[in-house]
Design goal:
This protein is α+β, with helices and mostly antiparallel strands. It has one domain: Roll (Pnp Oxidase, Chain A). The protein contains four helices and twelve strands, in the order H-E-E-E-E-E-H-E-H-H-E-E-E-E-E-E. The strands form three sheets. The protein has a seven-stranded antiparallel sheet. The chain has a three-stranded antiparallel sheet with strand order 1-11-12, with no helix packed on it. Strand 4 (38-42) and strand 5 form a beta hairpin. The radius of gyration is 16 Å and the shape is globular. Bound molecules: flavin mononucleotide. Flavin mononucleotide is lined by residues 19, 31, 33-37, 51-53, 56-58, 82, 85-89, 133, 157.
Length: 170
């Protein structure tokens, strides 16, 4: 027997998603948003998309500059992940306030986050409107990783819970 759920409740029971800091904008106006809506849209060529709600300051910056960085934090950055998801870059310089360092990108003008273990630099390919979020899908034009970056320490989020990946099954 299965319990019936509303469609809105149904999606809340999906497993957790990788959670990243999306960098947008340039120079001192560059900003960070915590995003759990992030996915690979193509493997070859490599493309990544992130779902951003139109009311976010990041939305405006993504439309203006058409570039973004995907910065992957590990579990020791949980507080920064929460912080960047709790205030708007319209009034706050999140790099400054949350002790994060702008790291110059190689192929784009939007900076990455030095403290993150993996950084993907993306050029916007298309924007797709879907309900209450638009998907910004970009080509990954450069990627860099810290030597000691641990994929299994990446932060996952959904349904109000933060986790790290569990047991290796296969
Ligand atoms: C764990 C977590 C995941 C989030 N995921 C998303 C997301 O995928 N898309 C989105 O638009 N907002 C998401 N948010 C909300 C934004 O991070 C939050 O509204 C942020 O303050 C917006 O910043 P900005 O106005 O500077 O762009 C998330 C927040 C948290 C805490």
């Amino acid at each position: 027997m299965k319990e019936n759920l509303s469609p809105s409740d149904g999606i809340k029971f999906l497993p957790h998603f990788p959670t990243v800091l999306i960098g947008s904008g340039t120079g001192n106006n560059s900003n960070l948003i915590t995003a759990a809506m992030v996915h690979v849209f193509s493997i070859s060529p490599p493309m990544i998309g992130t779902g951003i709600a139109p009311e976010r300051h990041s939305f405006e910056l993504l439309e203006e500059h058409e570039e973004f960085t995907v910065n992957v934090p590990e579990k020791d950055m949980l507080e920064e992940v929460k912080d960047c998801g709790s205030v708007s870059g319209e009034e706050h310089d999140k790099f400054e306030e949350f002790d994060l360092t702008r790291e110059q990108s190689k192929e784009i003008l939007v900076p990455g986050v030095k403290e993150c273990g993996l950084i993907l630099e993306c050029e916007l390919e298309k924007q797709v409107k879907t309900g209450d979020h638009n998907w910004f899908v970009g080509n990954v034009v450069n990627a860099k990783k810290k030597q000691n970056y641990q994929r299994k320490e990446g932060i996952l989020y959904w349904g109000g819970e933060f986790r790290i990946p569990g047991e290796l099954l296969d």
